Amino acid sequence: MAVVAQRSLISATPVERANYNHFVWDVAWYGIACAATSRFMQYYAMKMGADAMVLGLIVALPQLILMFATVLSPWWRNRYPETTMAIVWPALCQRFIFLLPAFTPFFPVSVRVPWLIFAVCLPSIGQGVGSTIFLMMMRETITPERLSPLFNRRILMFNLGMMGGALGFGFMLEHVVFPLNYSLMFLGAFVFGMFSLWHVVHVKRIEQSPRVTTTSTMRAVVVSRPIKEALRDKRLLSVLLTVIVMHLAQSFVSAPLPMHLANLGAKEGFLAVLGMAELAASGLITLVLQYWLKQWGAKNVMIASLLAMALAALLIANAPALWVTLVGSVIAGAAWTCGSIAALEFYTQRTDCTDVQATVLWHQLLFLSMFVGPMIGSMVVKVGISPFHAMLLGGALRLICAAVAFFGVAWLDRKASQESKAKYA
To answer: Most exposed: 264, 275, 374, 389, by fewest CB within 10 Å?
Structure first.
């Protein structure tokens, strides 16, 4: 992976090479910080008295806020002459998700769970505004031929950071008294998040990237086509369909999974090992993913990933012992990495970097799917279905999503081809 990255930067300008490195180190530090929230937040909430519905809200409610906050992205972007300037405050707000949970033990017992929900929801406003802007910034500061290698490199570094964070935080959680251990973990995560922010604010725009300006202010202005026009674009609809099924299938099991593992006897130490196994698989798969994308195409990689994710869910559900869940986690980590990168590659292939409406819609449906998935999963458990059967349902849902992606994209591509022929007939 390092060799591929170096080859892709041979002809890059010094500014683009610096941007590339900033993007890589940004996500490495952010990965360390994310280990605190993605690996241990739900178990922290359970120790604070959260039930299945609250666990679902902690995962899902921020996604709903993210979906609505993305609407503000064009307005916020137009407040600044450069995308690289517009990202600063949203990125800072986003990183407060690592700081706010640290103060939970200082509240009365009855307020702790509501505070945790607030702590994960407030930073979602900044993340929602910044997510669209950040993707626009990447496409303005890195040339198109280097975006795919950068996506792979970022996933690898993110997973390495997550592995280090999960191992370090897991060790601390096991050896420091509760709840001090969790407060220290979140404080440390915030520090790593600020290291990440330093790299984000040092990214610079490259001159050859497209820019739309007004003659009166010479400020870069985000333009957006009407939503009805965008939704008539069959190529864009195929992109939106794939992002929905990928994230709906992935997020459904986020509520029943920790409860299923807890029923099997998982503790923080095992969760750290489980996270490392999943992240190691995610990092290793990026070494061959670029070849698979070139050979099979982004759509086929996504479908294969959904099938592998279904296998992982079924394997974890039927695990007779904890160690068997490690195998399922390895498959899940590798499959989700392949699927998420393929979905992003599919998006960049079928949309233009100046199409802000496509970027906003893509993020809104991504966040909507990540809201609906956990809520359905938590409600399934809440009505009395066991976490074991909920995991089985998650595996079945992933199989259905694979079929929907395969036949849906094929149908939309046929419609787009027919419309193109009719247009030039």
So the answer is: 389
Choose among 391, 390, 408, 374: nearest CA to 303: 408
Q: pLDDT tens digits, residue range 190-203? A: 999 999 999 999 99
pLDDT at 65 over 90: no
In a domain, 305, yes or no: yes
**Host domain of residue 361:** 227-425
Q: Give the distance, in angstroms, between the CA of residue 297 and the centroid of all CA atoms in the same chain.
A: 21
The 10s digit of each residue's pLDDT in 223-247 is 556 677 777 788 888 888 998 999 8
Average pLDDT over all residues of the chain: 83
Distance CA 284, CA 147 (A): 19
Determine contact, residues 330/405, Cβ cutoff 8 Å: no
How far, CA to CA in Å, does 408 sit from each of 249, 307, 403, 411?
Answer: 16, 16, 8, 5
The answer to pTM > 0.85 is: no
Tokens coding 350? 């079928």
**Pair 65, 201 in one domain:** yes
Structure tokens that stand for 365 in this block: 């449906």
State the total domains in the chain: 2
Give the CATH number for residue 384: 1.20.1250.20
- The answer, yes or no, to whether the previous bond of 256 is cis (omega within 30 of 0) is no
| Number of residues that this document lists for the chain | 425
57 and 194, same domain (yes or no): yes
Same domain membership, residue 397 and residue 356: yes
Residues 127 and 259 in one domain: no
Whether 56 and 182 map to the same domain: the answer is yes
Question: CA–CA separation, 59 vs 362, rounded Å?
Answer: 19
**Residue 390 Rama label (left phi>0; alpha psi -120 to 50; beta):** alpha
Task: Return d(Cα 60, Cα 280) in angstroms, integer.
Answer: 26
